[in-house]
Amino acid sequence: MFEVGQVLYLVAIKTAKVVPARVTAITTTKTLEGEVTSHRLEFADAPGQAVDLEELNVEIFKTGEDLRKFMLVNATAAVDQQVKEAEAKVGDWGIPVTGAKKRKRRSRKKTNEAPDLSATLPMDNGGGPVTVVLEDGVKANVILPAELT
To answer: Is 43 exposed, middle or buried (0-12, 13-18, 19+ CB in 10 A)?
Structure first.
């Protein structure tokens, strides 16, 4: 599955922190119950410290681009959820939610191409909101957890 020397990008399930790691050893053990393979990792921010990949509770990505896509999908889902909850609260006041249908109509395209969901995030935004401009021109302010900035 992975090769010795290969760099992996790990995202901790609980904290969403990204940690790059390198596979330093692969061990396959054959027993009466079957075969077990373990991958020994070395971390970029903790040289000399090694751990088995199979002991970690992480999402694993082979490339930075795969990691980026995963994180953008998760960030988009979190923003969508917050907007949905905010619109539900406005609806509780008996005020109709406006703008959602307009945005939806504008975002439709008669093409089979997937939308470009790319965004460039600043490396250090001081913990403040990051403004993301969506494909249809809608701007969204997103506050990212400290682990992602």
So the answer is: middle
- Whole-angstrom Cα distance, residue 80 to residue 134? 12
Quick one: which of 4, 20, 18 has its CA closest to 121? 18
Q: Write the pLDDT tens digit of every residue in 36-95.
A: 999 999 998 888 889 999 999 999 999 999 999 999 998 999 999 999 888 888 877 777
Task: Retrieve residue 114's tokens.
Answer: 């997937």
The tokens describing 133, both together, are 């401009």
The mean pLDDT value for 97-116 works out to 52
Structure tokens at 19: 């940690």
Rounded CA-CA distance 41/16 in Å is 19
Task: Report the predicted TM-score, pTM, of the whole model to 2 decimal places.
Answer: 0.57
Rg (CA), the chain: 21
For the cut 70, the answer to whether the pLDDT of residue 148 exceeds it is no
Rounded to an integer, what distance in angstroms lies between the CA atom of residue 29 and that of residue 106? 57
